[in-house]
Design goal:
It is a single chain. The protein contains six helices and 52 strands. The chain is mainly β and 997 residues long. The strands form nine sheets. The chain has a 25-stranded antiparallel beta sheet that branches. Strands 12, 16, 17, 20, 22, 24, 25 and 26 form an eight-stranded mixed beta sheet that branches. Strands 13, 14, 15, 21, 23 and 27 form a six-stranded antiparallel beta sheet that branches. β49 and β50 form a beta hairpin.
Length: 997
Amino acid sequence: MHSKTRSIVSLLLLCAVLPLSAQFINRDQLKNDQGYQNYSGRNYENYAIQFNKRKIYDNFGNFLVDGLSVYDLGEVQDPVDGASTAMKSKYYNLWFNNLVIGNDQYGGFTSRVMLGEAIRTKFTSLTLDKARFNGIRWDGATNKYRGSVLASRISDPVRIAFDAVNLPNAVQRTRDWTTYLMGGHFETDLGDVLTVGATYLNQHQLHSSINSSESSTKGDVASAVPRVIFMRVKDDSPADLSGPIVYTLPKVMINGKEHAMKNINGRSPDRNRTNLNNPIQYWVFYDASSPANFEIDNILYTFGAQPRTSGGVTVTDIHTSYAQYAAEFGRNSVPQFPLEMRGRKSITFAFVMPYGVSDVKFSFLLSNDYLLEAAHDFVLNADKYPAETPAINHYDSNATAIPTPFFTAERATGNVQDGSNKKWVTYSYGLNSGMSVYGMNMKFSWNGFDIEGELNTSTTFRKYPLLAAPHVEQNGIAYYLRGTKSIGRLTLGGEIYKIEPDYTTSLNLYTLENSYYSQLSTERTILYIPPDQGSTLNSLVNPEVILPGGAYYSMVDDNDDNDRWEDGFYFYNATASLYSNNTDVLHPDPREVHPYNLGYRQNINELSGFTDIIRKPDTGIFPGKDKDRDGIPDDDRNSNGLPDYIESFMTYYSDPPSFEAGDDWNNNGVIDEQENDIYPDYPYEPDIKGHHYFGVLDAAKNLAFSVGTIEQEAIARGGRNAINYLKGTYSIANPRFGGVSLYYTVKRVYDNIQNNGFQFAINEQNNPTPVYYTDPLLYRNSLAHTLYLGTKYQQIPNLTIENNVRYESNTQYQVGTPTLDEARLGILINEQFPGVRTSIGLVNKIDYVYSTLSNRLSFRPQFKIRTLKIVTTNTFDDGTQGTTINTNVQTIIPIFRVDYRLTDNTELHFGVQGTELFGLTDGLLYKSRDLRTGLTDYNASTTAASLTNKSQYSGYNIVIDFGVNFTTTHYLNLPETPTFNPLIKSSLIYFSIFAGY
């Protein structure tokens, strides 16, 4: 009895201690059901539909936030579980517009961390300048100190279009081979006169599936063990009449010892002799009857191609094979040395590498302007040679291999043509794995002195494709120092600069997982596709969808118009076919562009197609043609992709670049501020050193005179640009009387450095591939005068008269010993006849406006004449003279416009550009005349009408514009054919709605 009583008492005591709910075994308790709740006095929180929150903790168990993951970047280095993972959720785009910012401050210190798709990031002009940095950036600053640190997985950082609509919950990319960019910049002020800064930047390839102790910022080399190494010698200046000379067979040193060699042209390697105990077997690819280079991608990198017969051997284009090398390229006998390669001719030595090679050096006895390039193919994808003999070995003639692209190995200094630089050129073979840039910069301002400069060094790391191989370094230096001193109205200034050919801010490497995506079609051929924000490509799960190949990561953009898009985003055309305009910094010659090189576009073709970016602000490349910085080129105000000077009515307000004037210090015929090249936008052109000294006198208001001297030398390319110049400018404008603009230069020039580039022909935004032009070198030895005079008269109300003239006289002095026979054969290279090249461009126009009905109705007659004539007169070697009319064109443009304001919101526009006046006369037609040949002469007439309404709707300014346009064009001297009618009639009907605010 006492025991039972004690049990009951104990139970009651326990109930008093524990919560009552703990006593029951019911589902309400398990679900933590709180029963009825009344919301009359508190807010109700709806269920999360998109923002699926969860409690997030750090790796120490600390609570961070009740939210979700927006971005995640992780790098695990481990031989078993190694992987690089980058993830961006859809909220990164939808909620934050691809930009997330965190900030903090303490005392006088401020800090900001940014993650974004397109962060404008510049350290210095010679180290880092990106319009669209994709990654993480941290900035910190005090009143005296400021600095930035950045990091990015630049090999596929995951790009999400700003206007993406359909996105998965997250975009994740997991890779085994990745490339990272990291670095920082620091600046401090010393007093109020001097600012000094320091920069460090590094790019390196990382292999996740190795021990972390085996990696460094020098980078991990692609585990593509060479089977055959190709060393190609060709002309570094193919446009001249000389070429590099190869004096004998090269020498090969393997693992520190020179090896004998054995030629196997026409044969495959001997199975029993492909080892380090026997001579190195090699082919020589050289065809004396053909100027073509040996290109690895002649054997197109395509899967599943049909077999074909080549040289009597059946070949299937699945990678490359010994049979192809023996029968297709190495079928000729070894040529006799010495041997000279001119133009596009080249010679390639292909060396079979046996197992056991960990270091190989090649030595060539060369002279003149040589370019040595290197590549290899591989069948073994491993960090080291296998302990046991694998199924596929380097002696296996049935195996097919994967080739790498050719990389520049060594270049001659200058354009030597007399053999005076004959020497043994040695190259230690390897693939690039990483690079670093170290730099200092300064700005100084005191007592009229303004000085700034940079000094930087770059180091590129490469190694033989084995994990244990040592790194080899290649260094380059770049610097500039420029400054001015003001003395009253006089300013004295100068600049010295040098950018060595080995200085680079880019990493050009071969990777086993290229960021330029590909996928296999149903026919088992490879389709090249740009990055897709909706896909989750995982190299560890689906390795076949990511090709090995070349990758190019630049830290200084080619962004000649300095807008928000690097130039490559817009016009580099990565098409899987030979395309004349498909060039880039690595392949400036369109003849060297092949589908195999498409991988190099991985960092410049983002998510917009060519048709998608038409009419987008800033997407075109218009250096010097957007002076009002509105994102629209000044010669395409209606943003339809056509330059205004070829459009009806708009042509009255716009003229081609040949009628403009400005500084052209590289003498390629393009105004410097309108230059569009394909090189990184360093402050000075790559591969050049020189100086420039000048004085500027502000003689009076708006009147200035300059005198200066420029001396430049192309280091590796060879060539010289020497200029002594005098320049004068004057401008005055008055809204009542008009204005005068005057520009004049005279320069004595010696320039044989080619400065090639891109210029739009006719279409601009509709054709996103400008025409690649070659500098004609018209100033090899010249005295050139350039005069531009523009006048505007507005003293009579409503009347505007403009007259502009651009005149250039280029007196060309003799260069070399040119002959008429050479000129007729088209082999006049690096020579010129004495003579004078004269260019004159005239623009005359008059515009009058008559208004009535309280300015609701206006009549506007306009008349314009545009004339361009270029003539060259030469004195030939036989004493005779010849005159060539290069260009002689004239355009006559009569226009009559009527504008009527129907209401405060609606206007009616009518216009005629060229008219026969009801058939009475053709004197008022639009006339285009080629006064040199007359072949393309035509008359035209355009009639247009439009109705425009401007109103407001839902807080937006709405513009409705619709109209018609009828044009008749009659070619006067072109005969009618079954496929061409010289009388062309066209019409346009349009209806457009625009919204703004």
